[in-house]
Structures are given as structure tokens and as C-alpha cells.
Structures
1.
Amino acid sequence: MGMSVTISAATGQDAEQIFRLQYLCFQSEAALYGNYRIDPLVQTLDSVREEVARDCVFVARLGDEVVGSVRGRITEDGAASIGKLCVHPRLQGHGIGARLLRAAEEALAEERGATRFRLHTGRRSEGNLRLYRRVGYEAVGTSQGADGIPMIVLEKPAEAYAATA
């Protein structure tokens, strides 16, 4: 490729690229569940802009192109909710998702005081589950998304991020 992928905090200028990338990346998840109304596909650009401004958002860049992103925020119980992790399909399987997760975990723990990390993924999303388990997440329960998709809830303690970095 000639260039390496870099991870950095997202800026407001990244919102449109994140929005487009998210739409591309979550098509396969929608197909897996036969539901094209999942949250990442119906989210508005304005909502993505709000998340970039408010939450802890990281992007992976290849040159000027955003090729991955992840978002996190602290919930009322002190946990960091991490979501919408996505990597461009042509670059999946090269560790970019794990690098994005580590960047979000570090910032959420060190800058925002997270006590543990929590994320959700669909029950059938085996690739996602493999990644999350590989970086230390364990299933702690189930839930149902607002879109009706059965989800697995995974968590790990905040101090564990250093061990997986």
C-alpha cells in the first residue's frame, strides 16, 4: 500500500466520512439479520456530528481517507459504552479494529474515568465476537436492540485495557 494506517481522535471534519463508512460497513450486519433498519444504517449525519462533538470518537486513516471508526461514552453507572466499531471491508482482518478499540479504551479510562468497558454485538456476529473475546471481553448477558436484533452484552474491567494493548 505504501502508507500505514494511523489512529487518531476524530474531528468534526471527519463526521461525513464516518457516516459513509458506517453505512458501508454495517450492510453485512444488516444482511446477516435480514434487517436493514439497524441503528448504524438509519443514523443521520447530524447525529454522527453530535457524537463526534460529544463522545470519545477515534478514526483509522489511510492517508486522508477514514477507513475505520469507533465511538465510546461514559454511562450513568461509570461504564464506558463502546459502539459502532467499523473497518472498511477491504482492510478488515489486519488488526485495525483491535487498534481502534485499544485507543478508545485508553482514552475512556484515562481521560473520562471509565471503570469498565461494555459493548454489544449481534448474536450471529461471529467475527465481532471473536475479536472482542480475543481482546479480553467476556459475555455478561443478553439484550435486544431497539431494532429487534438479539444482542450479546460483553464487558471487561477498565484496568484490563493495558493488558491487551
2.
Amino acid sequence: MDYSELEADVLRLVVGATEAGVRAFGEETVTRLVRPELLRGAAEDELTEAARTALATACANVLTISAAELHDELATIYDGILVDDDLDPGVLTAITALAHWKSYLEQNRRGELYELAIRSIEDIDHEVSADLDDFLATPEMAAEYERIRRLLDPGAGQERGTQQR
């Protein structure tokens, strides 16, 4: 499966999922994208102390923080970015995930969850450098794709199992 096919399939899954499915997917994915190890690369000269604190707080409380509180934490983070570019990739991943999650909480737009899925795929790609022509060739990328499918279309695995018999 090439990258454009992967994107199209993820979009199809997000659009077709149940409300409970997209919520579960969103919660699991945003939690994965704000995991503490992603923040370890943050250099002191990239973020102010207030921004680092806001980022840590938002990440630690991502599933319990309100959209308004998350909005305030993100404002503190954005105000405290000290570099023009070259923000640590893990920190950038976490900030982007928080912004998409905030928008989802505010507007309940599934497009924000599609963006979280793509960020999650990109996070894996950053670790393993997937082949654009066969994006699922690495075990890590195949596992991430299956995680996405399992959460957004729980019956898909059962259907595949039935078809293979």
C-alpha cells in the first residue's frame, strides 16, 4: 500500500467509524502522541520554563483537561516557543497532537482525528523510515495501521479472519 492509499483508507475509516469508535481512537492516539519520552528532547533554549510546564501539564492531563483549559495551555506553549524552526520533532509532535485534540473537543470534527492518525503514522515513519511505495512493509508501520483499523473498524479484523478460512 503506498502512502496516498494509506491516507485514503484512514480517511475512510475515520468517516465510517461509530462515535464511540472515533472517541476511543482519538483518546488512544492522542495519548500515544503526547507520551513523556517524546518530550525528553526539548532543549531549554527551545521553550520557556512556562511553556515547558504548560506542555508537560497538557500532556499529562490530555484525557481529563477541558478544551478551554487546553486552549490556555496551548497559548502558553505557543507564546513560549523560542526558536523560529528546528523545534525538537517529539515536542512538535506533542504540540500538534494537542492542537488537533483541542479542536476535536471544541468542534467534534472527525477531520481532527484523521489528522491525529496521520501524525501517528508520521511518528512511526520518523522511527523506521517507511518506504513510500510499500508503506506497510515494516512491522512497526503495519502494527500502527492495524491499531488504527482495530479502533475505527472493530469488525474489520473479524471479516478478514472469516475471508481467509
3.
Amino acid sequence: MAYTVGDVIAERTVHLTRESLVRYAGASGDFNPIHYRDDVAESVGLPGVLAHGMLTMGIVSSVVVAALDPAARILDYGVRFTKPVVVHPVDGADVRVVATVGAADNEVARIDLKVTSGETTVLVKAQLRVAV
């Protein structure tokens, strides 16, 4: 696959529900009640129940992986969490991912990720480096 700086290689919106969080908690073993109990989240000053950070990271990387050639190799992946993904008890939350080629040479492409929930940017400095 050829990578050209500025090309959007993937974009997707993933809907999360409280059930998504419970399933992830079971799979990951992270049963911190801020991920499923409003009263606990609010008692520690949070705006509501939050999606797990690693769940958000996994969703974001999966959007890119689905768009890559199956033989592609991810060299590294990093993000900085800036705002939480608050998952409403009825409406859930949408995580929007746009993956754009930020840099590319003959060996490596850097994929820059814009990650939002509603109007809020939830991850910054979100990048994957892929072996070309």
C-alpha cells in the first residue's frame, strides 16, 4: 500500500453503551466502578461513567488495522488522554476516529489519529507508525 501525506486512510464512528463497558470490564479484568456506576463516578468528581482508556485505545487502533494491508506491521502506537469518553446510561457515546497519513517515506508511515466524542477531542498525539 502506498502512503501519501494528507490521505485519509480510515474513518469510523463506534457507538459505546454501558453494556460495552461491562463486557470490556469482564474481558480486561478492570472492574473499577467509575466504568459502570454513576454514583461512584460522581462521588470522585467525574461527569459520569467513563469508558476505559484502554478500550478507547483499542477501538482507535482497530479502525486503522482494518484499513491496512493484512501484511502490514505496526511498529508503535501512542496516545495522550485529554478528556474522558462519558457514556450516557441511555444514549451511550460515539467515538469518532479519522486516520490520516501524517508522514511517509520508503520504510515507515506515520498515521495521525483525530479522536473525538461529540465535539470533544479525547485523545491527542495519537499516532501509529506502520512499516511500509
